[in-house]
């Protein structure tokens, strides 16, 4: 089940995997995750930084955060975007309109940005870690 909730915290409980991962056009520089609670809910929040590794601007960097069990099996996933493009995660938003009207700022060549994504405890099976993967990096037009 995909859940999108956001909170502003950087934390501990990092999965035992490497904090640096790469894709063709973007590199994940670091990420951290921890359990948080507030407003009657508990969620696992993952925050990190990424870099555009190309010599051109990217429309966005789409990432997938997978929650994994102790055997490495994915038990839940959520998609998110770099900070300037995270409005694309809003289900009610029309991505084409947002892009046409300039509401999504391209990520410049070599630029770094933050990202974040969360899993609600009540809607996520038990997990022991997570992994972050770059999914899509379209070139800005």
- What name does the CATH topology carry? Immunoglobulin-like
The CATH architecture would be Sandwich
What amount of the residues lies in strands? 35-45%
Main beta-sheet strand count, sense and barrel state: 4 strands, antiparallel
Shape: globular
Rg calc: 15 Å
- Tally of structural domains: 1
The count of helical stretches stands at: 1
Structure, described:
The structure is a single chain. The protein has 141 residues and is mainly beta. Helices cover 4% and strands 42% of the residues. The chain has a 4-stranded antiparallel sheet with strand order 1-2-3-6, with no helix packed on it. A 3-stranded antiparallel sheet has the order 5-4-7, with no helix packed on it. It is globular.
What's the quick description here?
This protein has 141 residues and is mainly beta.
Question: What structural keywords apply?
Answer:
141 residues, mainly beta, 1 helix, globular, Immunoglobulin-like, 7 strands, 4% helix
